[in-house]
Amino acid sequence: MKTIEDFEWTEMWNNAIDGSRWGQRAGMPEFWDERVDWFEELVQQSDRAGMIMSRIEKESNYTVLDIGAGPGTTTIPLAKNVKGVTVVEPSSGMLARLKENASKENLANITYLPKKWEDVEIGKDIEAGGHDVVIASHSLVIKDIKDALVKINDAVKRSVYIFIVAGRRNEKEGSSLWSLFNREKQGLHPDYIYLYNILYQLGIYANVEIIDANHNMQFPDLDTAVQHYKKWMDVSGADEEKLRLYLSENLVKENDAFWLRHNLRTAMISWRKE
């Protein structure tokens, strides 16, 4: 009988990235350069920052490393509550927006590293054990995941928090946009269970919390919704009419606004540095 140690979890993780359209795109900085406004609107409507801030350990004298910080979803609220935040963000568009957001809040305790996490060197770019807390929110779409996790553990002094999708989307097969455009192979995408078992093989015994949350996107009209998902899903040609038809049938009108409602399941993988 096979044990957890016998499974090639890293290979399965890489296969999941290769088999996932999302996995193939998410690791490209230029993909995010073109979607800054879209992403910022997305995370604001989902209250991702509030969900994360309510769960992580933070003290006024702490320093935090935020990997894949984007426009500052968690960086900005963290910088208001801790001694300092170091952000790792390879997208020039996201980094520019993050700096704008920090400037609006008059925050001067943020250090910026315009690099991929794979290219960051412990001892050169950041100090070993130099940050009390490390956060990576939906940003570890990395092929060399084992090395990335080891580096995270080397960088932290106290606690690590990784947020990642858990299982399949909470929608009936065939009813979602992802199914409509066949964006993912059935059951194949980077998932928390791979990371958890890779950590186990590394001798890191992490905790897991599964978080169910409603994710409701609001739009002023149908055309705005179409443009939003057209850009996100690279829809063009005849598929645009298919997208418009889906949204016209699934958007719910309430109080002069249109809503697309669905559920998201997220895993928080966390551990304390021994």
Poorly predicted runs are 170-175, 183-187
Shape: globular
| Biggest sheet architecture | 8 strands, mixed
Number of helices: 12
Instruction: Using the CA coordinates, give the radius of gyration.
Output: 19 Å
**Count of extended strands:** 8
What string gives the helices and strands in order? HHHHHEHEHEEHEHHEHHEE
- % residues in beta strands: 15-25%
Descriptive keywords:
alpha/beta; Rossmann fold; 23% strand; 12 helices; globular
Explain what the structure shows:
The structure is a single chain. Strands 1, 2, 3, 4, 5, 6, 7 and 8 form an 8-stranded mixed sheet that branches. The longest helix has 13 residues, at 92-104. This protein has helices spanning 9-18, 21-26, 29-33, 36-46, 48-53, 75-79, 92-104, 145-155, 177-180, 192-201, 222-232, 238-250, and strands at residues 63-67, 84-88, 110-113, 131-137, 156-165, 207-219, 252-254, 257-272. It is globular and about 55 Å long. By secondary structure, the protein is α/β, with parallel strands linked by helices. The chain has one domain (4-215, 263-272): 3-Layer(aba) Sandwich (Rossmann fold). α1 runs antiparallel to α10 (192-201). 38% of the residues lie in helices and 23% in strands.
